[in-house]
Amino acid sequence: MAFPIYKQLAEMDCGPTCLRMIAEHYGRAYAPEKLNRLTRMNREGTSLLRLRRAAEKIGFRTLAAAVTFEQLDNETPLPCIVLWNQNHFVVIPPQDYSGADPRQQILVADPEKGLVQLDKAAFLECWLEKDSEQGVVLMLEPAKRPKLKAKR
Question: Model pTM?
Answer without folding.
Answer: 0.89
